[in-house]
Design goal:
three-stranded antiparallel sheet; Aspartate Aminotransferase, domain 1; PyrdxlP-dep_Trfase_major; Aspartate Aminotransferase, domain 2; single chain; seven-stranded mixed sheet; pyridoxal phosphate
Length: about 375
């Protein structure tokens, strides 16, 4: 049995009677960051003119801290609302000629696939979806994706950590497979705080959310752009920074926007540092392994043997026949919330339905034991 040393639910304002087991969807903001955001909003509303004159300098300070947290070049790091926005900005930058192909995998996040479909429709290109088995090892992943790349490939979009399956993809090897000929867009939505220096694997574009595992305010994400693309990469909203030659500053000022989450985000990074995050992340990996085993035993199901699982997420198969429809999955989540006081999420893959469990610093093994007691009564 793995025991997480010193869980810290006191650092959050989460409802104590609820089992919070889905940090991977919307995150949870620490109390201290919430208090900072409240002070910043009070300041903004006390004198909006002074506030907006101060925003640019505050954003620069925040960006430098967040770029340092990622271990990336701040000159190529811009703030965006979420990873979907980062992928969309990347797709708007790369050439997608008529008749070309955008390659992605069956692990891709739904909104990312929709973005690729939109650009392909507009440019007369097509989508190619590569099927990667859930239990594939890195060699299989690289070989399977490489086989789908050809002279018509305009871009490869690949997850760093799949939202649907919590599988970690070998980004550096895939970048090498593209050989600098094919632009690589990495959806690193779950990567910040789960992988060290996640944006340093050589992709043309990398984007990741700070509102997930770094526990930053929602609406905070980063876009890292390789030097060759920085001049051409533009924000999705045309605003007063349109002609700024610097990539980060072009993305900073998006009109009358709520910049408080972006400015406050480094406070959550500091909370992680005080939690000794690298050590705690290792503990959480053991915790989520044990929690998944407890739940699978209670359900009489199994845990897929993912070769490279994320540090803090695991899949546990549910005793369903086939994949639950979106309506069925939503019904289970709503009933779990109302009847079991448990916040969970479901995912379907390769004909099976799973619960995707998360673990963060506020969780303990007791949370998963209680879910294991309650969930069978609902299914």
């Amino acid at each position: 049995m793995v025991t997480l040393l010193n869980p810290r639910p006191d650092l959050w304002t989460l409802e104590p009677e609820v089992l919070h087991l889905n940090h991977g969807s919307y995150g949870a903001v620490p109390r201290r960051t919430q208090e900072l955001m409240a002070r910043l909003r009070t300041e903004a509303d006390a004198n909006p003119m002074v506030w907006f004159r101060s925003v640019a300098d505050r954003l620069t300070t925040s960006r430098l801290e967040l770029a340092g947290f990622l271990g990336t070049d701040p000159a190529g790091f811009a703030l965006v609302p979420n990873a979907s926005a980062g992928v969309t900005a990347a797709l708007a930058t790369i050439p997608i000629p008529a008749g070309s192909r955008i390659v992605l995998t069956n692990h891709a996040y739904g909104a990312v696939r929709y973005a690729a479909e939109r650009f392909c429709r507009a440019r007369g290109a097509e989508i190619v979806v590569v099927d990667i088995p859930l239990e594939a090892d890195d060699d299989t992943v690289v070989a399977t994706i490489s086989a789908a790349l050809d002279e018509r490939t305009a871009g490869l979009i690949v997850d760093q950590i799949s939202s649907a399956t919590a599988m970690v993809f070998p980004i550096r090897r895939l970048v090498e497979a593209c050989g600098g000929r094919i632009p690589v867009i990495v959806d690193g939505a779950h990567a910040p705080a789960l992988l060290d220096a996640p944006a340093e694997d050589g992709a043309d574009f990398w984007t990741g959310n700070f509102h997930k595992w770094p526990a930053a305010p929602r609406g905070t994400a980063g876009l890292v752009v390789a030097e060759k693309w920085r001049t051409a990469t533009m924000p999705l909203i045309v605003s007063w920074s349109e002609y700024d030659e610097r990539l980060p500053e072009r993305f900073d000022m998006q009109g009358t926007y709520d910049y408080v989450p972006w400015i406050a985000a480094p406070e959550s990074v500091r909370v992680l540092a005080e939690l000794q995050w690298p050590e705690r992340r290792t503990q959480l990996s053991g915790l989520i392994d044990e929690g998944a085993r407890v739940l699978a035993k209670a359900l009489g199901t199994g845990i897929p043997d993912i070769a490279s699982p994320a540090a803090t997420m695991r899949l546990v198969e549910l005793p369903f026949s086939g994949v639950a429809t979106p309506g069925e999955a939503e019904s289970v989540k709503i009933r779990a919330s109302r009847e079991l006081k448990a916040e969970i999420t479901l995912t379907g893959f390769d004909g099976r339905t799973y619960i995707r469990l998360s673990a963060h610093a506020y969780n303990s093994l007791h949370d998963y034991e209680v879910l294991a007691e309650r969930l069978p009564t609902l299914l």
